[in-house]
Design a protein that fits this description.
The strands form three sheets. The protein has a five-stranded mixed sheet. A four-stranded antiparallel sheet has the order 9-12-10-11. A three-stranded mixed sheet has the order 3-2-4. The chain is an alpha+beta fold. The relative contact order is 0.10. The radius of gyration is 22 Å and the shape is globular. The structure holds 2'-deoxycytidine-5'-triphosphate and magnesium ion. Magnesium ion binds next to β1.
């Protein structure tokens, strides 16, 4: 039988306050304190993430540092140490592969595992998830949260429910009642714009969505309406796919001499954006998130990202977004630069609702 047709056991694992937890692990004097990683306390840049102590004050990822400081005056700002996070990321991936090779990483700190069959020979997803959490703690000294469910989207919602150090199991028989209670925003593929359109139809919860006539939904939302209807019935056909095709395209340049002239950096960014645009057009996959990478002359390396409202492959839009990040969210100009890079991620493709629907056989 095809693996899609039988009940699967999917685990979604996500590290808790990832960058901040690594910093608190390595600097014990920071434990128990509100800590923000990224940006700087003089108000420049944005917070990449923050410790749970800081979240009590309302500090969040992507918040400008100035605002974070206002919400929490004693907030301790720490620079990012990407090499360390990548190393931990490798360690957790090794742990995942102790239980299955069906591992689909979503980012440095997050992955789906299909443990329907697993190397431990365990029957219950719950036991596999407990093993993974314990091994992650042993290998890295850090906590992860996990969700276990028969499909990806429910597993991901579940892993977020009892953070930090959470473990939430949604067994097959509890899946439909669970989805019924969810706000539609939690359903995979529903962003703010779709949520607003659903709201206009009086659809607020998973139950509303499930009970709404599918042909009417399709009339309003097109093919993704049918997919949403399926998801509301607990039918998320996405497989856990190891080694997915590249999820970004980028271009970076190490400069011959360090430069601090913003105009000169912008010219490089425009050239790079043109390269990236060509690459995206070649694979016919526009992307939503533009990332600017800079290495300062002292080798400190930062990335700044902005997610657009719609996917793009336009060189101009990529360049303008990267330049806005350069001027608004970095210290370029005050500090000289030895490397510049532009990349686009969040590419539309096989995992995007519209395209997924096109790939599915009609029921
Ligand atoms: N990150 C970032 N910029 C963002 C969001 C996240 O640089 N806007 C980085 C920092 C995070 C890491 O990615 O530590 C993982 O992102 P998560 O969304 O999983 O957030 P955390 O792991 O920090 O916290 P949580 O416990 O909510 O998962
Ligand atoms: Mg996380």
């Amino acid at each position: 039988m095809d693996s899609i047709d039988r009940i699967r056991r999917i685990i979604h694992v996500d590290m808790d306050a990832f960058y901040a937890s690594v910093e608190q692990r390595d600097r014990p004097e920071l434990r128990g304190l509100p800590v923000a990683v990224g940006g700087s306390p003089d108000g420049r840049g944005v917070v990449a993430t923050c410790s749970y102590e800081a979240r009590k004050f309302g500090v969040r990822s992507a918040m400008p540092c100035s605002q974070a400081k206002r919400l929490c005056p004693e907030l301790v700002f720490i620079r990012t140490h990407m090499e360390k996070y990548k190393e931990v990321s490798q360690q957790i991936r090794s742990v995942f592969h102790e239980v299955t090779d069906l591992v689909e990483p979503l980012s440095l700190d997050e992955a789906y595992l299909d443990v329907t069959e697993n190397k431990l020979g365990l029957e219950f997803g719950r036991d596999v998830a407990k093993y993974v959490k314990a091994r992650i703690r042993e290998a890295t000294g850090l906590t992860a949260s996990a969700g276990v469910a028969p499909n990806k989207f429910v597993a991901k919602v579940a892993s977020d429910l009892r953070k930090p150090d959470g473990l939430v199991i949604i067994p097959p028989e509890r899946m439909l009642p669970f989805i019924a209670t969810l706000p539609v925003r939690k359903i995979w593929g529903v962003g703010p714009a779709t949520a607003k359109r659903l709201e206009l139809l009086g659809i607020r919860s998973g139950l509303d969505l499930r009970n709404f006539p599918v042909d009417k939904l399709q009339a309003h939302l097109g093919s993704s309406g049918r997919l949403l209807h399926r998801l509301a019935h607990g039918d998320d056909p996405r497989r856990v796919t190891p080694n997915r095709i590249a999820k970004s395209r980028g271009s970076e340049t190490t400069l011959n001499t360090d430069i601090s002239d913003l105009g000169a950096i912008e010219r490089i960014i425009f050239e790079q954006a043109t390269q990236v645009s060509k690459a995206l057009l070649a694979i016919q996959r526009p992307g939503k998130t533009v990332t600017l990478k800079l290495r300062y002359s002292d080798f400190e390396t930062i990335t700044r990202s902005r997610t657009l409202t719609a996917a793009t492959s336009s060189a101009r839009q990529i360049a303008e977004t990267a330049c806005a990040l350069l001027r608004g969210a970095t210290e370029a100009g005050d500090r000289s630069i030895r490397l510049v890079g532009v990349s686009v991620s969040g590419l539309l493709g096989a995992d995007d609702p519209e395209q997924l629907w096109l790939a599915l056989p009609l029921p």
